[in-house]
Amino acid sequence: MRSEEVDLRYASVGCTSHPIVRLSNIIPSLASEGVDEVKIIFKEDDIPREALKYFLLKYNYSIESFEELDRGFLRVIARRIS
User: Fold this and answer.
1) Distance of alpha carbon 11 from its chain centroid, rounded?
2) Strands, E, within the chain: which ranges?
3) Distance CA 73, CA 31 (A)
């Protein structure tokens, strides 16, 4: 099983570095490379849980778990739907 971690906690100033934009650039390439599991660390204020769920479904990933980290950050584990 191939696994990748995407850390969206730290972003520079500018609209192209917003976590949603960064995620939308990363996930399609991970899906096309056949990554089975993606761990995403992000701030819930930046990407609501339901929005992330539907975004990942577009690329055949299903969220298995949400883990609350410190300072309002979450870690999501998503797996490819067979």
Assistant:
1) 14
2) 3-7, 37-43, 61-68, 73-80
3) 24
Q: Which two tokens stand for residue 47?
A: 């990407």
Q: Which residues pair with 76 in a beta bridge?
A: 40, 66
At 17-57, the pLDDT tens digits run 788 889 999 999 999 999 999 999 999 888 999 999 999 99
Burial (0-12, 13-18, 19+ Cβ within 10 Å), 19:
buried
30 in helix, strand or coil?
helix
Q: Are 39 and 75 in contact (CB under 8 A)?
A: yes
* Between residues 46 and 10, the one the model is more confident about: 46
